[in-house]
Task: structure prediction
Amino acid sequence: MKSWNSWAMKDTDLANAAPEVALVLAAGLGLRLRLENNIPKPLVRVLGLTLAERVVCILEAAGVRRFFVTLGHEAETVRAHFSDIARRRGVAVDFVEAEDWERGNGASTLAAKGRTGDAPFFLVMSDHLFDPGIARALADDPPAPGEICLAVDRGKDGIFDLDDVTRVRIDGGRIQAIEKSLDDWDAGDTGIMLCTSGLFEGLERAAARNMHGLSDGLRELAGEGRARTVDVTGMPWLDVDTPEALREAERRLMRDQGRKTRDGPVARHLNRPVSRWLSRYLVRTTVTPNQVSLASWILSCVAAGLMALGGYPALAAGGVLAQLASIIDGCDGEIARLKYSQSKFGGWFDAVLDRYADAFLLFGLMWHEFASTGAYLPLLLGFAAIVGSFLNSYTADKYDGLMAQRLQGAPYFRLGRDVRVFVIFLGAILNQALVTLGVVALVMNVEVVRRIVVCRRADAK
Result:
């Protein structure tokens, strides 16, 4: 199954292919989730962002630029929140007053007739979180005029609430039956669709028979062979309509922060579990990723200063602080991904601070040994360690890009900053400053040479 990290990542190819309009259903009562939170469901928060904002961000990552939002229960509160999202995220949001919203989500959808234009548009629920790849799958297999395409999940074992999912029976890629009580069924309804104006025809016919659910309209179209399915099995999605589902959404989002393929062994197995625990709390505050990057850098500077003071207690304390700073350094990216606040400047700013921190830490270790012994060997090893560290960082992008392309996202061998800082931490704790400088100098420079060989061989193929 794909990682839910992609919920928090832009996809340029997807943005070029997907329709630019989406209809978001946000009119319902959402009683099961409201009983615990006492606010409209779209405003319920999942790790720092509301459900409404997460849905907008997911669709924006899928190339959507204009949103139509249905309003019903607590309309003005929901309207104000989506307007705020539009202002901060730079997207266009128009509102649809669904006067008959209490009849069902089909009635809410029907209120948008004539508003979405002639081109296909996405239809999603304001409480469904999903991988933007689902939108890509729909965009790659769009409906014919008058049809709709429903994303379905055949992986019954992976559906979170199997008892509550809307069940779909499929024949030849088309919906034969759709309802919650089906005994013989093939897939679950993800609640994500790519529609044409034909959707409203089905909803109108269902409404004429006093049936006002979205599934009722789909059944009308299915009877004419106008309701197709697109299989998205393996792509994550979740209907967040209960407190249990809300906790599951948070669990999945935090779990997948540990699947960053560019993590080295120390970051993957030691730093990341701790940083995820910290990020789970920080993401609920107003702390920004850049502030976390700056805090990590300040800790590294303090660590370097302690190591340079002389004496084992200061050296050991500096090593512990250096490792703590390395752990915290993972939180900035996690918060940025969870809050959809990634920026080119943020990544560059973090990289610049990391280079300064590396130089300060190695200089502090070098000065500690030089001041203690007066020998010149620490200066030589310290210089080699700093140069190797800088070149290790400089060659990282090319190497990571090559390995990611080769291995398609699978973890790969990597020695980077996480290993470097961990070696400094161990050396300080064991009171082996000179040995540590030698190890860092040797390992980092050998790693640079190895990357050169790997990239040269790849370029020759």
